[in-house]
Amino acid sequence: MKFTKMHGAGNDYVYVNCFEESLPEDIASLAMAVSDRHKGIGSDGLILICPSEKADARMRMFNADGSESEMCGNGVRCVAKYVYDHGIAKQQTLKIETGAGVLHLDLELAGSRVSQVRVNMGHPILKSAEIPTQLPGDPPVDADLDLGDQSLKVTCVSMGNPHCITFVDELNDHWVHGIGPKVEVHPMFPNRVNAEFIEVVSPSELKMRVWERGSGETQACGTGACASAVAGVLTGRSERNVLIHLPGGDLRLEWAEAGEVYMTGPAVEVYEGVWTGPQ
Ligand SMILES: N[C@H](CCC[C@H](N)C(=O)O)C(=O)O
């Protein structure tokens, strides 16, 4: 199986071109095997670039634990870069089908290849039943999340996939590795949840670290950055236009008055290879 290694702000996935490659039936096991950083290729998960009936391509995304997610913000930018650079479609505006619907992406070129992508990520989902979470509020804003020995104030937003945002005074490992895994599997989130921790630098600048559902800490999370930008506005902590600093790079976010979230960030291809390991 041929694959391409790509990342967006350090959030790295193994990409497979399913216009050409055929995959084993058990994609969950394949995702776990390729993602292993010691015994596999090493990645935050597996992303399939598939034919679509309503768009230029369809993205399917699997976490490192084999679970499938509806959406991946850094992934969809890389899918767009792959589709353009590898000649699957040659327009500078692409449509990619995802679990969050068909998204529109504007490509920025460096020479003949894509370097940056601006994505219309659509409207955030703010109804608790659709996020989904059992916390009160549509959406829950600074709601109490009881962890037993302590309680967090969390804001929940779905970008097609679920996010739980906690604003903190200082970002550190305690939040990401100590609290993140507890939030991920908290019973208030029936489908588990991605946990973002945000330090507000100024109303137009945030610092973020993430504990992702199914993959643990990653260097960036595009949908998490969108959800955090929305949470910043909902809680009055930040403006509609923000720059978010992540361990792997920066993302630019805008929650437009009309309701859509726009995300701009890099997409990088690193290498191509052939997977000969367990299927
Ligand atoms: N890193 C991805 C999100 C992966 C989300 C996944 N961990 C989930 O289960 O929803 C992003 O850039 O949006």
UniProtKB/TrEMBL annotation:
Gene Ontology molecular-function annotations: diaminopimelate epimerase activity
Gene Ontology CC: cytosol
Subcellular location: Cytoplasm
Keyword set, alphabetical order: Amino-acid biosynthesis, Cytoplasm, Isomerase, Lysine biosynthesis
One example of a Gene Ontology biological process annotation: lysine biosynthetic process via diaminopimelate
Site (Could be important to modulate the pK values of the two catalytic cysteine residues): H163, E212
Residue numbers annotated as active site: C72, C72 (proton donor), C221 (proton acceptor)
Positions contributing to substrate binding: N11, N63, G73, N74, N161, N194, E212, R213, G222, T223
PANTHER family to which the protein is assigned, alphabetical: DIAMINOPIMELATE EPIMERASE, DIAMINOPIMELATE EPIMERASE, CHLOROPLASTIC
Entry similarity comment: Belongs to the diaminopimelate epimerase family.
Function statement: Catalyzes the stereoinversion of LL-2,6-diaminopimelate (L,L-DAP) to meso-diaminopimelate (meso-DAP), a precursor of L-lysine and an essential component of the bacterial peptidoglycan.
NCBIfam families registered for this protein in UniProt: DapF (TIGR00652)
Protein name as catalogued: Diaminopimelate epimerase
Origin species: Gimesia benthica
